[in-house]
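Researcher: Here's my situation. A collaborator sent me these components and asked whether they could plausibly form a single complex. I don't have experimental data yet, so a predicted model of the whole assembly would be a useful starting point for our discussion.
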Amino acid sequence: MTRLATGGLIDRERPLSFRFDGRSYEGYEGDTLASALLANGVRLVGRSFKYHRPRGIWGAGSEEPNALVELRTGARREPNTRATVIELYDGLEATSQNRWPSLTFDLMAVTSLAAPLIGAGFYYKTFMWPASFWEKVYEPMIRRAAGLGRSARETDPDTYARRHLFCDLLVIGGGIAGLTAALAAGRAGARVILADEDQRFGGRLNAERITLDGLSGSDWAARAVAELEALPNVSLYPRTTVTGLFDHGVFGALERVADHKPAPAAYEPRLRYLKIRAKRTLLASGAIERPIAFPGNDRPGVMSASALRAYLNRFAATPGGRVVVFTASDDGWRTAYDVLAAGLSLEAVVDTRAEVAPALLATIPPDATRVVIGGRITATAGYLGLQAVTVAGAQGEVFEIGADVLAVSGGYNPTLHLTAHLGHKPRWDETLCAFIPDQLPPGLHIAGAVNGSYSTRAALLSAGEAVTAALGHLGFSPRNMALPDVADEAAGVSAFYAVPGKKAFVDLQNDVTADDVALAVREGFRSVEHAKRYTTMGMATDQGKTSNITGLAVLADATGRTIPGTGTTVFRPPFTPMTIGAVAGEHVGKHFRPTRTTPLHAWAASKGASFVEVGPWLRAEWYRKPGEQGWRDSVDREALAVRAGVGVCDVSTLGKIEVVGRDAAKLLDFVYANRVASLKPGRLRYGLMLREDGFVMDDGVIARIAEQRFFLTTTTANAAKVMQHLEFCHQVHNPELEVAFHSVTDRWAQVSLAGPASRTLLATITDTDVSDAALPHMSMMEATFFGTLPCRLYRMSFSGERAYEIGVPADFGHAFMERLMAAGAAYGLTPYGTEALGVLRIEKGHVAGGELNGQTTAGDLGLGSLIAQDKDFIGRTLSQRPALIAADRPALVGLKPRSVGDPLRAGAHLVDVKATPSIETDLGYVTSACYSPTMESPIALALIKGGKRRIGEPVRAYDPVRDADTLCDVVDPVFVDPTGGRARG
Amino acid sequence: MTYSALALLKNALTGNRNWKPMWREPEPRAFYDTVVVGGGGHGLATAYYLAKEHGVTDVAVVEKGYLGSGNVGRNTTIIRSNYMMPDNTRFYEWSLKLWEGLEQDINYNAMVSQRGVLNLAHSDAQRDAYARRGNAMRIAGVDAELLDRSAIRELVPLLDLDTARFPVKAGLLQRRGGTVRHDAVAWGYARAADKRGVDLIQNCEVVGIRVDNGRVTGVETTRGFIGARRVALAAAGNSSRVAAMAGLRLPLESHVLQAFVSEGIKPVLDQVVTFGAGHFYVSQSDKGGLVFGGDIDGYASYAQRGSLGVVEHVMEEGLALFPAFSRLRFLRQWGGVMDMSMDGSPIIDLTPISGLFLNCGWCYGGFKATPASGWCFAWTIAKGEPHALNSGFRLDRFTSGGVIDEKGAGAQANLH
Amino acid sequence: MRIPCPFCGERDSDEFLSIGTVGPARPDEKASLDAFVDYLHFRDNPAAETREHWHHVHGCRQWLVVSRDTRSHTISAAEPARRSAP
């Protein structure tokens, strides 16, 4: 049995059952999946990426490169989950990945035999003949072999949340340094957030045999946590990984709210993405033990020495009973000590150093084990799990030792990732044989092992210093900074990274060997970035946390440079892989973006409207009547009703802006291309806005409500852009003008009442005089409807019919519509949607979104005559650039197919009847098209070279992507009532 | 050494000890006929085509970092020619043609993979705009198909076509579009250029451009002065800074664009898919990672890092298309610095300074342009005038008004 | 990034919209075409501290001039555009 009889922070009263690869096992509350597997004697957990070599568990933390599994099943399946960080829960189900047919018998392992052929970068040199075979044969083969786990294929049933946090001091890492700092800051009264990726605060305190103030490490940590929990100004975030540092003290973090349960509780998010803004931050993220590259260093049973301590001391689990320790540092001896303390057989301690301090040697009883000073591990044996290691002694003697666990200690790499996310480079420390943070990002302090303060005592001291400095910046006085009483440990390291030989893995997950690095160098990839990209070293899910420095050392050696002279690759967020769903938070499905509905939405729905997404809005497309077969039936009926009688359309989505002030007219004259100042109060004018580059930006209607008050409409799409543009034109270009803007889009329910019967209907619902004399075309007034409701009434037309727009205070919109419909019943008042609105405007030749596409000029759209010549305005000068006034620019015309049955769609290009379609013969394109029930034909607006000069000519509407090629006649763009008499009445 | 399956086998049998460096590491000489500034994809391709197409081999490429350390090494690897404006359609189609023959041409497998690029439309208006573009492509002899929902469903089974906030209405598919292994493009061009005699000089930053009487005479570098008859700038991201050394101001702003890669998973996505109701694109690499990105961060930056807001948007948009990816994780995000031009289109042109040539303004679409950019720039340098293919990509188009504004967004760099 | 809005205090940059560096003032109506072409399109685009126009879209809706380093993103000042000499 590989569960130790006693000890550990597991709850033996609470057994949990779980399954791995279909077999049932039992673990305890407090286990990780990794510790539970080890406790059940399972050492083989996965297969490597390229050679499918059997792999076990390397570490005990989030840096794990080997033990990746598929967790859960079905829609909750989660590939590449590190067994070392998954808390065991009852019913957990995990599956090994990247193997076929099974983990113990993986046919893909034959790739290992071809290793000499498929070393680093082999694919760049082959698979090129015949050319077509790459995509047809080779690539599909490679794709199938690549990748690790499998994605779920259904929508994730779990939910995710976002939280914004603010604090004085963010402490990242709840080990001894982080707890000490959080206690000091908390006692001083600062708002503190303490985050740790583990479910249990304490870091290495939970994994070591250590005494502080007479308490065990874990008890000391528990006492500190209890005090922190009692402080109202401290927030504790266990299971929370701070993944990225961004500019100005912004941090991204991931809180695993419910990953330790079979499924989240009702209304509980699975994960929470935290966005933390911290005034100061104290990083106490510790250090990660680094492997040594040596032949066969990847077998299940080869493990980080500090991880073995964690399994023994915290989880009371062991991967085996016969242990060899291979160390280049003092820290390995702690593992040797703990192995003996756990009652396991310590077969040997192999220290690479020529000399080891006597005090360190004395920690192990003289007869307890075999000690090899100046030794190396040169080979390992055992296919699915370690069985023996080959040791070479200092004098060249070679011998084999039977062992099922090899604990490797190559020294530590400070977990400095966050200190480098803003581009600050670490420096190499010769004593520590590691990169440590150099210049720090603004507002960041570091303490503990990340600062190279490896021993418990050094970590405590550095935490005290760092938190004092941080509190000083924050204006708090440190209180009660007494540090616990603790013995110091030896923390010497040596510069030892690799033992030469075959299959000495540098990157365990991506199967990059020291030979691969050497090959890359041979081929000229000497830069660290080149070597990384060529070999894929450090590019796996662990992003080189265990492999990078070893790889760098091998690279430095092969290029004859020093490690600092070789440099590191770039540290990028996230620190550990970040779940996509968590970052998206609530913004999924229908909540991807907010949905805007108009004040008349419910009314339209009650009338059978079908809604369509228009930017953020939902708009009524058409109102289906019983018996109508398809949407065209509804749209045709609605359009004809407007032409023959009266219809009503919700146009509330149009942007609406009030412009007020002494200089309002002056500012608008600067913004619009046509003249505004001459507009009389009570009158309306079509308004055309250019961009500064001379192309059309937007159009709408300008109403002068009073001398110093205007009301503008914009297109639905450009409402926000126009508002911002107005503010820019004021605040930046004309700050001296007295004018203010107010977006009133949501204040008004706005409807268009259109059709020859519109005035007659209007007269029945208001006492205000709405005669043509009182309210001529392009004028406005305030009017009271239904006796009590004050509204704004604008007479304008988009359809070419007599038409009015009524602005109703938003809250009264729905009631107004019900009254209006009742009053309109006698006149056949017909609600019409955006499709009929589109038909009516195309029939009338009005430009809209299809034409206002940012590539057209006023001239292109037949609006050139509107441009005022005698004032400065945005876009005036640049609209006169040669290409914008060239005679052959495509200009607006109408199109009608020769045969009514032929399709004519927007997006078709225009080509001369005799020409072969080509870039040279392309004359333009259809901007908008519809079926016109009035013309009883498809019709379209189009931009064509030559413009109206072509009226009367035939042209092909060439639409190969929809298999259409329709012979059309170029006609005037105004299909209905070209003289405009109907709108004027 | 020529790469082949046989070479691979022979070397495997000799312990892979005999592979030769892919390029020399020469010391810079005192003078070159042409110095190309920037050892990224475009600079290396330019050098290669100068040598191959025009016999100009007295060429140095000077690079401030390592070869391919700019945007060729940090993009989302997409190639396509689905453009609408004639200047773009012609140019990018030529680029795609060069991609199609690249590997045999340079004897290097850059993994050009024509797996298809699918642009999704989420409204009728967007479908029509895609039809306009697709028709423009077909008219120019470029492949394009407008797909309906059922065809899309069949092609990309994991797409959420129905329950999304912005349901998919149609899609524009270019089957010849796809992906390329980005680093390999830089390495392949570098090796091929080196073979033809081009000096590739790494860790050599240009700190000045020497101009005498309106004529360029060479570049000051961190490794000393290098004289040259012609200097060609291909330093996208930093074009403004380099051009300023010669006193030129450019119609550019430098912006950061972020990209992301997920953990490796078994194949789930064959095509490149783009989202039409936002700004998102994704493909799956041969290694298994989903490679994806979104919009630029929106502010000028020379730092290769972005902000969290964009990260959130990108993840949201990804899940709007593929809800099944919710439990996957991204393992790395990074930023590249883009030359954002004022109409969204590039510049390959002469400059007012004799002998000084300019290649810039690629916005975030420079990767797919690499072969044609190098090819056209080489032509422009060798002949002293633009090729027909880049005759629209000139600096004076802002004066003439002949802008190439594919999106119709106007003269604001961060809108393209 | 965090932008110190002079009206709203320090806020996330997500609330703002940047349109690029503050160049010379808009030429007057009598200026040449070239002057407008230059004004609208051409930029110093320095790798240095630069003054930029930012709009507090999801806040006070004021246009600001923000002094920001394009290499480090360090912000030294933010003031209302209407008070800032072009």
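Model: Some features of this prediction you could bring to your collaborator: The mean pLDDT of chain A is 96. The interface with chain C takes residues 246-250, 277, 422, 442, 692-693, 720, 724, 727-728, 730-733, 735, 871-872, 876-878, 880-881 of chain A (CB under 8 Å).
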